[in-house]
Fold these 2 entries.
Entry 1:
Amino acid sequence: MIGVEITRQAKRRRTLYAFLALVAIPVVVMTALLVNGGPGPDDRGGSPNLVDVASSSGLNFALFMLLATSQFLLVVVVSLFAGDAVASEAQWGSLRYLLTRPIARFRLLRTKLVVAGLYATGAVLTVPVASVAMGTVAFGWSSVQTPLAGALGVNTGVSRLALATGYVVATMAVVVALAFLFSTMTDAPLTAVGGAVVLVVVSEILDQVSALGSIRTGLPTHYWLAWLDLLVDPVDASKMTTGLLEMLPWVVVPLLLAFWNFRRKDVLS
């Protein structure tokens, strides 16, 4: 079933358009950096940012694109894959047909979840892979220049990029869980997708409100950028570890609710 579902989703136009968008954004940014000669120093007197060294090498460009896309574009794409998983079948009227076949609801939902997770992982991986390829052609293959910690060797830079990508994949698991839960609750895919995106955006806004104090640490997006600690030497992984633990309930609870809701749902369409 998983292989069949992967093939079905691969043939859909929204899958093609989503991956094209993830490749097109690095092209646009790379072109802008080449035309403008790269960003100059921060003239506002603030600390240097990752964008200031984005054109230093292909690895730098990939790290910047991972940062730039992980806060919204990847959220939308991942929500699309997970939020569309069940709701689209209900909208098309094929969900009831699927359940009349000798397939348990748990198995059907598990298949949908696995495939959504695979496509979400593929979406995240597309950004650094495409960015490294483009950035290497445009800016060369050399060490990673970090805003505050100086240069990191090529091998170190590759390993840090891989770890950062893995962490972003983990953060997107929250989006998958939320969108998948909404997908089992509605017959409208856009509602499921929009619901997950809105929750993430609200979480990001609330995380900026310092008056909330320690409450912010419980928000699903509070530790999303903890992977930036990989750009210092030596690495302090404490925030990343805390972030993974804090995000775990935001993955487990929505998924449990999704399976519980779908088992008792009266499917009419």
Entry 2:
Amino acid sequence: MILELEGTDNRARAGTLRLPHGNVPTPVFMPVGTQASVKTVSNEELYAMEAEIILSNAYHLYLRPGIEVIKNAGGIHSFMNWKKNLLTDSGGFQVFSLAAINKVNDEGVEFQSHIDGSYHKITPEKDIEIQSAIGADIIMCFDQCIEASASLFDAKAALDRTTAWAKRCKSEWLRLCDDKNTKASEQQLFGIVQGGMFEELRKESAGQMVEIDFPGYAIGGLSVGEDKATLYRMLSTTTKELPEDKPRYLMGVGVPEDILYGIELGVDMFDCVFATRAARNATVFTQDGKQSLRNKSLEYELEPIDEDCSCYTCKNYYRSYLRHLFKANEILGLRLASIHNLHFLIELTKKAREAILNKRFAEYKNNFLSRYMGGKFKNVVF
């Protein structure tokens, strides 16, 4: 059992993930380092903000630098000098997002590299071999993600393929666990729930994943263009079908309001590229909502981004200076904004955890979102 539950508040949960590179308190936000690097942020800065687990992507690492390069370094932790836990996404979302150069069939995916145009084929078995060689602490099944507007027919077809692939992924993982030359026995494999925007399909997919039996479960295929109400409805439906004693990971969803609603619905793990992507475009999170560091109103502001924030950026730099960095196209601006946004989300989940343990999560969520979203906040009741 890798999840030890320590407290609940209605459906919200607080616990600890027991993983090879240290314990991870949950709920947790995982910074995304797609290509073995969290953009503009060093490992030491991630340690300072107490990031206990980060995410990389098997699809991208397979293409560059290549699995043999990572194996030669002794695995991903040694290769990137990361001393804490790491999760690899299987690449299912990249198959979806790069559909123009991919061909999906029951056997797997044939695709052209977006880097050099070379041709490749990945099956569920090969995907698990790739992730085993990379050496992440948590690895993901290969799945088929679809757009939010997909029909019932297409959503069911993708669900069936995802289930078939999940069975093959688990079989390959178990085979590799018996091979002392691999790291598979030290890894935890998560199944991924799909089903599009159809509640019955979500229930069906969750039931099939639970029947296959994985150490943990991910919820995929959300935040792909649907509205917030649909996102939360699909999430609420799915988490009800998943085991209480295993971790639940909501893939690719990571803005403050979605994280807090996800926690309320029983999600333990979150990741999203938005925090660093927004930061590189001068947008930062504050207690009073998102703010652009390019705003002229900040020109003479001798205050931090957020007076309540304890991150390195807020402890050392004024809004006025940060605005100057972005106006002057200085790289330091991207770094400082990224540090702030990641710290903000990590602290958000820490405070949510504390609120759950004190049976005050609903109060914490509502107070935070009332300020963060202002007049746009209308509590959703599940």
